[in-house]
Amino acid sequence: MSRALSDAIVFFGATGDLAKKQIFPALEGLVRDEGVEVPIIGVARENWSLDGLKARARESIASHGVLDDKAFAKLCGLLRFVPGDYANPSTYARLRHELGDAKRPLHYLAIPPSLFARVAEGLATRSEGIDPRLVIEKPFGRSRESARQLDRILNRFFPEESIFRIDHYLGKEPVQNILYTRFANSMFEPIWNRTHIDSIQITMAEDFGVQDRGRFYDETGAIRDVLQNHLLQVLACLTMDPPTGEECDSVREQKAALLKSVRPLDPAQVVRGQYADYRSVPGVRSDSNVETFVAAKLFIDSWRWADVPIYIRAGKGLSVTAAEAMVYFKRPPRETFADAASPKSGHMRIRLSPDVCIAEGLRVKRPGNALNGEDVELVLTEEATSFKPPYQRLLHDAMLGVGDLFGRHDIVDAQWRIVEPVLDGASAPIPYAQGSWGPDQANRLIGADGPWHNPLPACTRP
What topology is assigned to 170-388+424-449 in CATH? Predict the structure, then answer.
């Protein structure tokens, strides 16, 4: 794979919500932290002026980032704007003119998936003599077949090594920390298997509802929005084998092998819920059966993980906003001491948001004459949220042509294969109260492997 730095950035959907919340702050970060000095060209269907786009950028960064006057002035000097219909060839002609002598532009499609093929074809008609890269925003398809069809269309115009399927969760520092902690410390590998691990839980909770995204969310749901992509990627980071070699694709090779071994979801082992008043959100259908909560039991068909149950839970309108993974170790085969130990007294807790934390749960002796114990937790790391925004990291990697934090076609296909049996569930989701932990049926799903671990708002346990 080519590692030559992209010499221009083009982002379609420059006037959209994603650009406002994520892309402009990331672009300022690229200018400030990475020394990016290439043309940055926004493309949108709205007939704005360049000054209008710069005003939007300032508003965006002030609201969703950290406005640095020096970096922002430099960003404005690099900004260009091309208004036009994505179906009109003249839009791509004007874009090619703005690109000037650029030979390796990075094109980021922050637009609805229904427009991907049209824009890819428009770019291809004006790509003679250049080596472009294409960043595709999720969702990548709505099903396994639709994702495959989209792959076929994009591969008509771009080689696979030039396509970067973005999942911003992979750009998060805590998610990268899973791989680093596992493979930078030799003590974990000998016990990271079915012999020593009893079960795994992954929870992604949000205490807010769908807010102003009602129309989008009602076409998506929790399974497509976070389970198929974010949470299966976390699962892969937790359970994949160590990468081999030095090439960036070695990480994706192991992720692909792991995800291909995950058993497709059994509808009988999935709980779908919908928080109260969801149907009253603007843009949501009055008879909607879209889930805002999902809990699932998964298995990995491999020697390392055979028969280890993995529980994933995600939802909106829950008790807190936090995400954590819990790896529970088995108790010793024989309890040496007479006091009753909790079956979950040994664990590793990996905090994914909103802060960073890795902690070990141990059982230690209480002070006194008797050999009685208590469960304690040793916090290994705890950090403030002062790391690079995911989109900044991912866009810079794409500029470098480094794909290890992006989805590959076989990885995306494996993720859709896992969730396909439970997409568009025929049964109505189970109602649950906002501020709760979802439907009671989720507790029955986890059963004797429970209870669910409920993350706290802050990393440190009481």
Answer: Dihydrodipicolinate Reductase; domain 2 (3.30.360)
